[in-house]
Design a protein that fits this description.
Elements lengths: L13 H11 L3 H28 L6 H12 L4 E3 H8 L3 H13 L3 E5 L7 E5 L1 H19 L5 H17 L9
Antiparallel strand pairs: 1-3, 2-3
Helix pairs in contact: 1-2, 2-6, 3-5, 3-6, 4-5
């Protein structure tokens, strides 16, 4: 998308320029959707950079942070590995990988289930609870000011909930 031809309406916004090009090439019916998807991907990159800036000094990824936080929310600080994957909506191999790393860091340990030894529990350690608390303090600064006013945060969250529901996610539509 060079936009350098005479009469070009090139803007400084590459997504807007891509939209213009989509329309110019006869794909007007797809242009708005392309701009939405591309904007979502770019917004994810921007938010991920902010998250990584908080978590990198703690040697955590967001996936590992989510495991720690989920375990810290559980009443006993432990949860079956399969349930972790279900709550986090990730493949079991991703949970195993995250727990492997957290175990090496001393943030979790694995234990057999009390009723069925084939069940593997991820158990939060004191160091893991402390790491989750430190990470949450840093991330809450981002969560408190994600870059939009509160009303727009709520509006965007509602729109994304509808998008997720349309893609098959189970979502709570009561609020």
């Amino acid at each position: 998308m060079d936009g350098g031809e005479p009469g070009s309406e090139r803007t400084g916004d590459p997504i807007r320029e891509a939209h213009r090009q989509w329309v110019a090439h006869g794909w007007a019916d797809a242009a708005d959707g392309m701009a939405m998807v591309t904007s979502l991907v770019r917004a994810l990159q921007l938010v991920t950079e902010r998250i990584d800036a908080v978590l990198r000094p703690l040697d955590l990824t967001f996936a590992r942070y989510e495991v720690l936080q989920l375990l810290s929310f559980s009443s006993a600080g432990r949860m079956p590995m399969t349930r972790l994957g279900s709550f986090l909506q990730v493949h079991p191999a991703s949970v195993t990988s995250a727990v492997d790393r957290l175990e090496r860091q001393g943030f979790v340990r694995r234990e057999p289930g009390p009723a069925d030894r084939r069940v593997k529990l991820a158990v939060l350690t004191d160091d893991g609870r402390a790491a989750a608390q430190r990470a949450t303090l840093g991330l809450n600064a981002l969560f408190e000011d994600p870059g939009l006013p509160p009303a727009e945060v709520a509006q965007l969250t509602g729109l994304l909930r509808r998008l997720r529901a349309g893609a098959g996610d189970e979502v709570d539509t009561s609020s």
